[in-house]
């Protein structure tokens, strides 16, 4: 009977996942095995030659099978790391992406570190952006909004975990969900922006598992962004920052929307892959 070590099992799992078309087979194999063994990824390399017990192998098997069926790792484990924090991400809730951390950086860079301020995060999903802003800036009050009940529940859980008392989550449709009129120094959004016709181009990990409500936004992908921009005038303080994530081909169109709405200093920010990923502007003075 073959004896499996951490090293040999990781090697097998990496190759098997790659054959299944998984985009990041090495990372996924490490995350799943670390979960099965109850350790962190560093420990896998410290214990690389450790033989694995039948019980440990039995815990790992269903996890790797689910990933081979293209279920996202975040749903298998129930968590996703974002900006150095573990966010609860149950099924039915959009999974935060690494490139969205740049949206947080744009928001944080727009304010002095000790400045008391208010921020609003629209289409908040798990709360990754809004909760992170609150956690990184102890003097900020942050409101988060999402239309999905599952997302609101997850965001409230994450808000309590990482920013207790300073991140408030509301259920409803964009600005209409807010309980009272107030102006914000920062408004961020990671809205659905995939054009409906592009659905077939998405990986099965996304298309077959993540909520379509958080992905698709009409024929050109701008249906939700248009509504957000249209409402900024009533909610953004003069010279306040608005920043939204986009699909790279939308950069010019979204920039035009911001300018037409009276925002100034409109700019496009690229992600680490060099793709146009966020559009930002300042509220009219």
Structure keywords:
alpha/beta; 285 residues; single chain; seven-stranded mixed β-sheet; two-stranded antiparallel sheet; elongated; 11 helices
What proportion of the residues is helical, as a percent range? Answer: 25-40%
Largest sheet: 7 strands, mixed
Molecular shape = elongated
Mean pLDDT, nearest integer? 92
What is the H/E order?
HHHHHEEHEHEHEEHHEHEE
Q: What is the SS-derived class? A: alpha/beta
- What percentage of the residues does DSSP assign to strands (E)? 15-25%
Q: Record the strand order, biggest sheet.
A: 5-4-3-6-7-9-8
Q: Counting H and I runs of at least 4 residues, what is the number of helices?
A: 11
What does this structure look like?
- There is one protein chain.
- The protein has a 7-stranded mixed beta sheet, with helices on both faces. Strands 1-2 form a two-stranded antiparallel ribbon.
- The longest helix is centred in the N-terminal third of the chain and has 15 residues.
- It has 285 residues and is α/β, with parallel strands linked by helices.
- The chain starts with 5 loop residues before the first helix and ends with a strand.
- Helix 7 links the parallel strand 3 and strand 4.
- The mean pLDDT is 92.
- It is built from 11 helices and 9 strands.
Describe the secondary structure blueprint for this structure.
Elements: H1 6-19, H2 25-37, H3 41-46, H4 54-68, H5 73-77, E1 79-82, E2 85-88, H6 101-109, E3 117-122, H7 128-136, E4 140-146, H8 149-163, E5 167-171, E6 184-189, H9 204-207, H10 223-235, E7 236-245, H11 251-260, E8 264-270, E9 276-282
Parallel strand pairs: 3-4, 3-6, 4-5, 6-7
Antiparallel strand pairs: 1-2, 7-9, 8-9
